[in-house]
Amino acid sequence: MKSLSAVFLVAIIITGLLFVVTMNVGTAQGGATLYVISGFMFDTSGKVISGASTYLINSTGSGVSTKFYSDSSGFYYAVAPPGTYRLVSSGPAGSGLVYSEANIVLNSDITKNITLTTVSVSPTSATLDVGQSQSFTANASGGSGTYTLYEWYVNGTIKSAQNNSTFSFSPASAGLYSITAIVTDSSGATSSQSTVATVTVNSALVAPTISASKNTVDQGQTSNLTSTTVETGTSPYLYQWFAKAPNGNFLPISGATLPSYSFVTSGSTAIGVWSFVLKVTDSTSTQVTVTSAEFFVTVNAAPAVTVSPRTVALNAGQSQLFIATPNSGSGSYTGYQWYVNGAAQMGQTSSAFSFSPASAGSYSITARVTDNEGSTSAQSTAVTATASVIPTPTPTPSTSPVASPTSTPTSTPQTSPTGTPIQTPTSSPAPSPSPTIPEFPQLVIVAALMVVTMAGLIIYRKQRKKLTV
Question: In this structure, which of 52, 84, 115, 291 has its CB flanked by the most CB atoms within 10 Å?
Fold first, then answer.
């Protein structure tokens, strides 16, 4: 009974208050008829709102009722003469809650419970580069539950023809922007502006430019690629290098994720023109990637050299000229180095090398060549030089003639045509060993023998002629 009595008492008090207010307002309006619109106020979660101001506005935009504030139960009311009004409610200070409903026809007392219409914008923040777009969505709730109109604002300025629940923002310049929305439901109730979505816009991302320490390398050399500093777009940045081998396709280089890259070649690196690009991705909400222009590095085969002649035989003290013939590399050669048995020969830096062995032996001759890219070849295949000792001549000993042993020559008697016996000497056994007679005395003896023989022939012919006569 006590609880029922309490409820009855509250009802009597509220009715009395409304009567008093009506009478007071009526008195203020000079006895005109006044009507009351009243009810309870809720937020979108169904929670009552206390401390919200409520009043009516006529067609001229003038407030015609005193602002009344909802009590702790969420009860509100407003009083005005007959007419068509806009009912406006504002939530407690700092709540951001606003309710506005047009075309309230007040020709009798009206009971109207209000669920405030609210709207939020998503995403709540975004980062863009100039030239990008970001889509925002207005998420409405409360009111009638059916929403017929959306209004979008950028930095507080309404965007014309943007009446849908989504809005595509495409900034033309860098800066900081705020995006808000207002929604109207099917009963004409309009929400307060949504909470602000913040957009940070940076300059458009520009691709870097590539340069290299060497545009041409030989196998085994390195070219260091670098890029210009990226200062546009939104930092931080992601980097990825791509390479294309001769007659190949662009492929990402594993681990090459810095602004610079070292192209290290070896003997197995394909010769020809290699292409490189650098892709940079920034940190906008929707990432932007730009690609540099292609950069080219030419890879030559490593320089090599051959030495000729291949095999040489010579005497110690003689000289032999060797020639180094280079190939591959850049094609332009700046220096040579000659080696004998693996030891570098001081000052021997031209393509020709004169070798003069001081002693007999087998010698290995090799060379290296350096091209104008600074690449030095491996040592050439060795050629062999075999040096011999020059034989020393043995002099012939000179001796005096030795007299033959005393012997009595024997002769066979012969008879001349005249009957005169002729003595014919018989040869004696050759002495053993025969003495060596100097060359000049031998000539004298031969000449004397010839003279004696000729004289004998002359005497012989004269004797024979006498006998014939």
Answer: 52
Neighbours of 355 (CB within 10 A): 20
First to last CA, the chain: 219
Domains 118-202 and 210-300 share a fold: yes
3-state secondary structure of 212: strand
Report d(CA 206, CA 213) in Å as an integer.
Answer: 23
pTM of the model: 0.63
Q: Where are the beta strands (DSSP E) in 107-141?
A: 110-111, 114-115, 118-122, 125-129, 134-141
Contact 178, 155 (CB under 8 A): yes
DSSP letters for 26-66: HHHTTS---EEEEEEEE-TTS-B--S-EEEEE-TTS-B-S-
Strand partners, 225: 212, 261
Q: Which CATH superfamily is domain 304-388 in?
A: Immunoglobulins (2.60.40.10)
Q: What is the pLDDT along the chain (469 residues), one digit of tens a residue?
A: 444 344 334 343 444 444 444 444 443 445 578 999 998 888 777 788 888 788 888 877 676 766 777 788 889 888 889 989 888 877 676 565 667 788 889 999 999 888 877 899 999 999 999 999 999 999 998 877 899 999 999 999 999 999 999 999 999 999 999 999 999 988 778 887 898 999 999 999 999 999 999 999 999 999 999 999 999 999 999 999 999 999 999 999 999 999 999 999 999 999 999 999 999 999 999 999 999 999 999 999 999 999 999 999 999 999 999 999 999 999 999 999 999 999 999 999 999 999 999 999 999 999 999 999 999 999 999 999 999 987 776 666 655 555 544 444 444 444 444 444 444 444 444 444 544 444 555 565 666 677 667 777 777 677 666 655 5
Q: How far apart are CA 288 and CA 279, in angstroms?
A: 10
Q: Which residues of 335-345 are buried (b: 16+ CB within 10 A; e: fewer)?
A: ebbbbbeeeee
Does domain 118-202 fall under CATH 2.60.40.10? My reply is yes
Rounded distance between C-alpha atoms, residue 275 and residue 263, angstroms: 11
- Give strand pairing partners of 39: 76
CATH of domain 9-115: 2.60.40.10
CB distance 384 to 311 below 8 Å: yes
